[in-house]
Amino acid sequence: AQSVTQLDSQVPVFEEAPVELRCNYSSSVSVYLFWYVQYPNQGLQLLLKYLSGSTLVKGINGFEAEFNKSQTSFHLRKPSVHISDTAEYFCAVSDPGDYKLSFGAGTTVTVRA
Amino acid sequence: EAGVAQSPRYKIIEKRQSVAFWCNPISGHATLYWYQQILGQGPKLLIQFQNNGVVDDSQLPKDRFSAERLKGVDSTLKIQPAKLEDSAVYLCASSLVQGNNSPLHFGNGTRLTVT
């Protein structure tokens, strides 16, 4: 089964600064990759996903992620964050034929004015 | 489109008691999932239904957890008896079909505290 490591548990960042959240997965074979966001007391919402094709994936709310097969990474970036981006972010992976998502432990992003 | 509805939002019980959670998926969604999210961890899949059949329950602690989706719509997840380590947020999610091109829609979860 696939596993995911999110390298940062907490990321404080100032408003309008860029942010990068790091995610590495366990396998070098074909995978599907996802980033989800969880706002306080809410369920998870899909930010973006990589299934195939271009390694640079654009998602909602100005986020993007880059799939790097050689480094087994799928880091999430946003060039300029807002206070409203304060949330927990989860990276997830699945095998193409499996459909089961394995989630990382999450990264808490706190945006300060 | 109404989202995934879950109730209750919060539940506090003592260990060895039983508890049940309810989920109403988005209308027309055939696939339903229950996840357990322990504080500081990512969600872990407990069980997946396709209509009213179980697709995967390999991570469900079957000695104390049970789930059903009798008519292929609503679902209930039960814990009996509860243990302290069952304290978590229980998330229900649904998707139109099974597959990674069909995004998961999550409910707001039920936060369970076992004392």
Describe this structure in words.
The complex is a heterodimer of chains A (113) and B (115). Chain A has 113 residues and is mostly beta strands. Chain A is built from no helices and 12 strands. In chain A, strand 5 (32-38) and strand 6 form a beta hairpin. Chain A is globular. The mean pLDDT of chain A is 92. Chain B has 115 residues and is mainly β. Chain B is built from no helices and 11 strands. In chain B, strands 2, 4, 5, 6, 9, 10 and 11 form a 7-stranded mixed β-sheet that branches. In chain B, strands 1-3-8-7 form a 4-stranded antiparallel β-sheet, with no helix packed on it. Chain B is globular and about 40 Å long. Chain B starts with a strand and ends with a strand. The interface between A and B is medium-sized, with 22 and 21 residues.
Give the H and E element order of chain B.
EEEEEEEEEEE
Q: Largest beta sheet of chain B, briefly?
A: 7 strands, mixed
Mean pLDDT of chain B: 93
The description of the largest β-sheet of chain A is:
6 strands, mixed
End-to-end Cα distance of chain B: 37 Å
What are the segments of chain B in which pLDDT stays under 50 over at least 5 consecutive residues?
none
Distance between the termini of chain A: 41 Å
**What is the CA-atom radius of gyration of chain A, in angstroms?**
13 Å
Poorly predicted residue ranges of chain A: none
DSSP, total strands of chain B: 11
Largest binding interface between chains: A-B, 22 and 21 residues
Summed over residues and divided by their number, the pLDDT of chain A gives a mean of 92
Number of strands of chain A: 12
How many helical stretches of chain A? 0
Helicity level of chain B: under 10%
Q: Please report which band the strand proportion of chain B falls in: under 5%, 5-15%, 15-25%, 25-35%, 35-45% or over 45%.
A: over 45%
